[in-house]
Amino acid sequence: MKNVTSSIVFPQWRRRLLEEHLLMTLILLELFLSIVFILIGYLKGEIYFRGVGVGLIIAWVTSFIAYLFKRLNNKTMNNEK
Fold first, then answer.
1. Which helix (H) or strand (E) holds 43?
2. Residues 64, 65, 71, 74, CA torsion sign
3. What percent of the chain has pLDDT over 70?
4. What b/e string do you get for 34-62 counting C-beta neighbours within 10 Å, with b at 16 or more?
5. I want to staple 10 with a disulfide (CB 3.0 to 4.6 A). Which of 14, 28, 45, 67 is the partner?
6. For residue 76, is it within any domain?
7. Would residue 65 count as lying in a domain?
């Protein structure tokens, strides 16, 4: 499968940053937003915001598990070479 960043002309530093850190940044953003929505839900007493926060926590956990499997897969692929 072709890497997206290799088909677009990026400086080397930007390509490395996107390939290595973008996924973790998005996962941390999901975690931060879930905490914010849950806190807003409890402070305002609205179930809607708490529900959005819980949904974001579910998305965060799913993304983090996928990230761990991707890291483990990359490590095993690098060890086989």
1. helix 12-44
2. negative
3. 89
4. beebbeebeeeeeeebbebbeebbeebee
5. 14
6. yes
7. yes
- Give per-residue pLDDT as tens, 46-55: 999 999 999 9
Domain that holds residue 44: 22-80
Which tokens hold the place of 64?
């983090």
> CA-to-CA distance for 68 and 28, rounded, in angstroms?
14
Q: Which two tokens stand for residue 1?
A: 């499968």
Alpha carbon 43 to its chain's center = 27
Q: Would you say 34 and 53 are in contact if contact means Cβ atoms under 8 Å apart?
A: yes
Nearest to 50 by CA among 34, 63, 61: 34
